Amino acid sequence: MNLHRYPELVDRLAAEFVIGTLRGGARRRLQRYADHDPAIRRALQDWERRLAPMAELGPAATPPTRVWQAIEEQLGFAARRQLESRAAEAARPTPPALPERRPWFESLSFWRGWAIGVTALAAIAFVLVVRSILPLSPTQPTPPTVAQQPENEISHVAVLDNKEAQAVMLISWDAVHAKVKLHRLTDAAPPAGRSMQLWGLPVNGHPVSLGVMPDHGDATMPAGEQQPQQYPVLAVSIEPSGGSPNPDGPTGPVVFTGKLLPVS
Amino acid sequence: MQKLSNIAAHAITHLSMTANPQELTPETLVALLERVAGEDASALRELYDVASPKLFGLALRILSKPEWAEEVLQDSFVNIWRFAGDYRRGLSAPMTWMSAIVRNRAFDHLRRVNATETEWSDTLDDLVASGDPTPEELSSMSAEARQLARCMETLEPAQRQAVALAYLRDQSHSEIAEVLTVPLGTVKSWIRRGLQKLKTCLGGV
Asked: Does residue B17 sit in the same domain as residue B107?
């Protein structure tokens, strides 16, 4: 059938196609004609344009806040948003720290975002320093034998800052020997009867414990199966003595964070 | 942390300011969509603040369950984020483009869920705005939507309902006949004549 002889029929079919009541074989047939016939395509487009604004008619309704949270989580830019709120915060004078209430201070996502922005420069500077001072490649006068593997194969470092953006800890990760080394830059110690716990924050999923730190001094902690590439950000939280009772994340406040960066 | 509560209060004030319907002009939305296309996350937030009530209202009209509408709204904004670069202002108003995304996502959702679960709870009159839109509503609509709203008003209420059920709920002639408890032939002629009347009213559009 030559539909061009029946322009009114084409128009009616196109209208019913767009509004959705043209179904089954008739719908598929018109679609097939449209694939080869610009006049039919145009009729369909005209009706699309006429009817599409119908979706705008009708009352508005405010969605619950969880919808935006889910969008943000799905698109993975909670960190970006937190960074912006940190910037807004930085534009104001620093409030005196009141110990009794610290909701944002305890928020992991806040620290995650903040750490990425604030620490990046410091960490890069540290990488440069660490590169020059750590024996990244063997410097022994004679080539090492198997028994003489270099003790350090630092692949990643992180400078952990406190909330005043002061560097308090240097974490260096030796992926070859599966060791995480803690070097304190200040005498940051947990409150009496509490422990500090190191966490890796993956891009997706819950924080993973990298070990409970000694209260003072430096330490080397086994990394086990953990790989530094999995954790763009490290964090330290204050936990009950011996570590967080929850294996999937801190229960106490997050006090230090820093970006974990590859050395080379 | 006193300052924090100040900041929160400021943020809330700011949000309610940006949710002003004046911000929903096509120009604002086009500018926001362009920033979203450039992967500006804060622009998506602004877009969400101004456009989500309208789009959520649409999702609620298409889907019978609020939790489905929430899922569809989430899905839609994820798609807006991903496809904002495909938006062409010459082809459709920004609100029309976003509404089409919501409608398509909602229809996909309807096809996925068991049809027997679907049960419309709201009144049919809510499907499309009836009566005179308030000045706020008018300012938040695209010119095309304002014109269509005016033309929809020229239809008989039954014609209007049948057209809206077909377009917004993806219902067939026989489903609409069942909902409106009228014979199948009546629905067919309501929709046919309704569409014809709309075309005449919309003129050279």
From this structure: yes
Mean pLDDT rounded to a whole number for chain B: 80
| Residues in B touching A80 (Cβ below 8 Å) | 41-42
| Interval A39-94: pLDDT, tens | 999 999 899 889 988 888 888 899 999 999 999 988 887 665 555 565 566 555 54
Yes or no, beta carbons of A55 and B52 under 8 Å apart: no
| pLDDT score recorded for residue A51 | 92
Partner B contacted by A80 (CB < 8 A): yes
Per this entry, what is the length of chain B? 205
Quote the pTM value. Answer: 0.53
pLDDT at B70: 96
Model ipTM over 0.90? no
Query: Between chain A and chain B, how many beta carbons pairs sit less than 8 Å apart?
Result: 156
According to the model, what pLDDT value does residue B202 have? 92
What confidence tens digit (pLDDT) does each residue in B61-117 have?
A: 898 789 999 999 999 999 999 999 989 887 788 988 999 999 999 998 888 875 555
For residue A98, the chain B residues in CB contact (below 8 A) are 1-2
B8 plus B96 within the same structural domain: yes
DSSP class of residue B153 equals H
| B63 and B134 share one domain | no
Query: SS3 string of chain A?
Result: CCHHHCHHHHHHHHHHHHHCCCCHHHHHHHHHHHHHCHHHHHHHHHHHHHHHHHHHCCCCCCCCHHHHHHHHHHHCCHHHHHHHHHHHHHCCCCCCCCCCCCCCCCCHHHHHHHHHHHHHHHHHHHHHHHHHHCCCCCCCCCCCCHHHCCCCCEEEEEEEECCCCCEEEEEEEECCCCEEEEEECCCCCCCCCEEEEEEEECCCCCCEEEEEECCCCCEEEECCCCCHHHCCEEEEEEEECCCCCCCCCCCCCEEEEEEEEECC
Of B7, B127, B202, nearest to A89 by CB-CB distance is B7
Q: Does residue B6 register a pLDDT over 50?
A: no
User: What's the rounded Cα separation, in Å, for the pair A204 and A217?
Assistant: 32
Residues B40 and B66 grouped into a single domain: yes
For B168, the closest of A21, A54, A101 (CB atoms) is: A54
Domain count, chain B: 2
Considering the domain architecture, whether residues B82 and B128 belong to the same structural domain is answered as no
Q: At B158, which amino acid appears?
A: A
